[in-house]
Amino acid sequence: MPGEFALIDRIRDRAGRRDDVVRGIGDDAAVLALPAGHELVVTCDTLVAGVHFPEETLPADIGYKALAVNLSDLAAMAAAPAWCTLAMTLPDSDDAWLDDFLDGFLALADEHGVSLVGGDTTAGPLTITVTAHGLVPAGQALLRSSARAGEDIWVTGTLGDAAGALAQWRQRGPASAKLRYRLDRPTPRVQAGVALRGLASAGIDVSDGLAADLGHVLAASGVGARVDLGRLPCSRTLADHFEENRRWELQLGGGDDYEICFTAPAANALAIEQAMAALDLPATVVGQLEAEPGLRLLTPEGGAWSPPATGYQHFQGGHA
Q1: What is the Cα–Cα distance from 114 to 165, expressed in whole angstroms?
Q2: pLDDT tens, position by position, 184-210
Q3: How far is CA 185 from the centre of its chain?
Q4: Is the CB of residue 116 less than 8 Å from the CB of residue 106?
Q5: E strand spans, the chain
Q6: Of 1, 72, 139, 284, whose CB neighbour count within 10 A is largest?
Q7: Could you tell me if 25 and 116 are in contact, meaning their C-beta atoms sit under 8 angstroms apart?
Q8: CATH number at residue 163
Q9: Where in the numbering of this chain does the PurM-like C-terminal domain appear (predicted)?
């Protein structure tokens, strides 16, 4: 089996390089050139086999998702991705597995102009950690703490597909390939995040379920919210496989959507709709922010509704 340095060489040989990478893989650290007038946005996510993805997930899908979840964080901050590092803990040094992993990882990196500039490799249970770096014009990053009472609450795309796939996987019964694709290959809404600069007031990516992630915005901003369950955007596939109440559970508490939940003044609604239409990306107003603290969920008939769970938390049960 190839050793650690052979693995690093294999990764370096396949990694692309941006013009603003002064020094990439090969030194003790990367040297990167920051453009004038921009701020650096940094995020880090770890994916663990059996927690963040089923053990049998294809290596190309693991590679894709490992980067996608980080790009999603940058998108929620309105940052354009630039560079990343990759730390891999691998059970063994399998060239074929690594090449397949890099197929997924680097395809997404190339799509978004991201350079892999460093990382680490070690032996152990399969664990992937990515740190991603993005750029945003000074003062334009979307924060969780900037939402205000009276603003609209929006979400991009649809919610619940990935959680639906995970529910089907756990039941070991019939499964939808479309739902599973949303679990294995989430789409980071990078272009949407950039388009929301100057239009949205606050943002967060939906990784742990809408109820939990919106709750972080409410807590940081000191506001409350009303969400209308009948407005939650749902794919036709999810509707075909789950009844209404179960869909709400998946959309609010399931996680792994990697859509952007953002808030904005009602006066910006038309501009937001036009910006999202230019990207061919649906975006839906699902509720409003209120001065009274707390999250209130209303059925289409106007009644209050409480989900069995509000979102995923580590150390309280695993995803997969």
Answers
A1: 29
A2: 999 999 999 999 999 999 999 999 999
A3: 10
A4: yes
A5: 21-23, 31-32, 38-48, 80-90, 115-123, 127-137, 152-156, 202-205, 224-228, 260-264, 283-290, 294-298
A6: 72
A7: yes
A8: 3.90.650.10
A9: 148-297
Classify residue 95: in a domain, yes or no. Answer: yes
Structure tokens at 311: 């979102």
Q: Is 312 annotated as a binding residue?
A: yes
pLDDT cut 90: percent of the chain above it: 82
pLDDT of amino acid 318: 45
User: What's the pTM?
Assistant: 0.92
Q: Residue 92 annotated as binding?
A: no
Q: At what angle do helices 95-111 and 4-14 cross, to 10 degrees?
A: 30
The reply, when asked if residue 95 is annotated as ligand binding, is no
Domain limits for position 161: 144-298
119 is known to lie in a ligand binding site: yes
Q: Is 120 annotated as a binding residue?
A: yes
28 has binding-site annotation: yes
Is 240 annotated to bind ligand? no
Q: What is the CATH number of the domain that holds 56?
A: 3.30.1330.10
